[in-house]
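Today's session is about reading a structure prediction critically. Students often jump straight to the picture, but the first step is always the sequence itself: look for stretches that repeat, for charged clusters, for runs of hydrophobic residues. Only then move on to the predicted structure, which in these notes is written as discrete structure tokens rather than atom positions. Here is the chain we will use throughout the hour.
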Amino acid sequence: MPADVSRRIRRRVRAARRAAAARGDSGMTAIEFVLLTPVLFFMIFATVQFALYFFADHVAQAAAQAGARKARATADEHPGAWRGEAQDVVDSYIRQLGPQLVLAPDVTMVQPEPNTVGVEIAARVPTVFPGLDLTVHAQSAGPVERFVQEEN
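Below is the predicted structure for this chain, in token form.
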């Protein structure tokens, strides 16, 4: 009898080994999925945040350039009114291009020199990650455009 019991035990052990070898790493896929899913989601959200930031930066830069163009063109003819006209152009650009991307814009009209005018914009960017506070800064300035008659 002991030989018969020993043979049965060996047969069961071999069958268990074959079954384990046939199963392979069947549980590893679920574990890998659980461990890699947060990394994948982080990468996706980081890509979205990157896109939001750079699009908001481009909107702010376009608005600053448009405002500076208006300021340069009107500062000579309307010395006091160019600030309001440039502000209107900046607000219009932000409304058209990205009202949800450029949050709480702080628009400043600058005149670093008597013949130079410009626009500076600082604004917040919407974030995907809680607690992340991103801001964009844009500036554009240039000389005041004026017609100068040629001397004879």
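Discussion point for the tutorial: Residues 28-74 form the longest helix (47 residues).
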